[in-house]
Amino acid sequence: MAGRTRRASKQDDRGQMTLMIIGFAVIVLLLVTVVTNASKAFLWRRSISSYADAAALAASQSVGEAGIYSADLTATLPVTEGDATDAVDDFIAVSGLRGRVPDLRRDVDVAPDGTVTVTLVTTMPLAFVNVVSDGYGGGVTVAGTASSQALLG
């Protein structure tokens, strides 16, 4: 009888390793998906922030002829919102950013003290979409904001 009980319990344990391996494989795949998507979002945000920095710098240095002759040039360059917006649009065109990021949206704001703030917003497609990231199947919004002011002296 004792030999029979041992044999029966040995047969009942078969296949348990297969279930454990499948479970671990699913967990690993979900973790790879989350880490890959998070890394991609981080890199996109960093890239968009760099472009916003460059666009803000270009905008803060864009002063029209009328602004130079009509303003008191003691502290900062007199930048108008129109000049800043044109400079940002030129930067986006020259850098080819519109081709790499088709749904790019930009916002340009010029403060009274001459500080130009540029915000670039886009939607990043996810690398992998699964059960965990299914709610973000349309992509994740990524934004970068930068400010610049051209001081004189």
State the secondary-structure class: alpha+beta
Question: What's the mean pLDDT score?
Answer: 82
The biggest sheet amounts to:
3 strands, antiparallel
Biggest sheet: strand arrangement: 1-2-3
Number of helices: 5
Strand content: 15-25%
Instruction: Give the SSE string.
Output: HHHHHEEE
Catalogue the unreliable spans. none
Measured on Cα atoms, how large is the radius of gyration? Answer: 28 Å
Number of strand elements:
3
Shape, principal axes of CA atoms: rod-shaped
Distance between the termini: 99 Å
Helix content: 40-55%
Give the tags:
single chain, 153 residues, alpha+beta, 3-stranded antiparallel β-sheet, 3 strands
Strand and helix layout:
Blueprint: H1 2-12, H2 16-60, H3 65-70, H4 81-95, H5 97-100, E1 105-110, E2 116-124, E3 140-148
Antiparallel strand pairs: 1-2, 2-3
Description of the structure:
The chain has 153 residues and is α+β, with helices and mostly antiparallel strands. It is built from five helices and three strands. The protein has a three-stranded antiparallel sheet. The termini are far apart. The mean pLDDT is 82.
Compose a concise summary of this entry.
The chain has helices at 2-12, 16-60, 65-70, 81-95, 97-100; strands spanning 105-110, 116-124, 140-148.
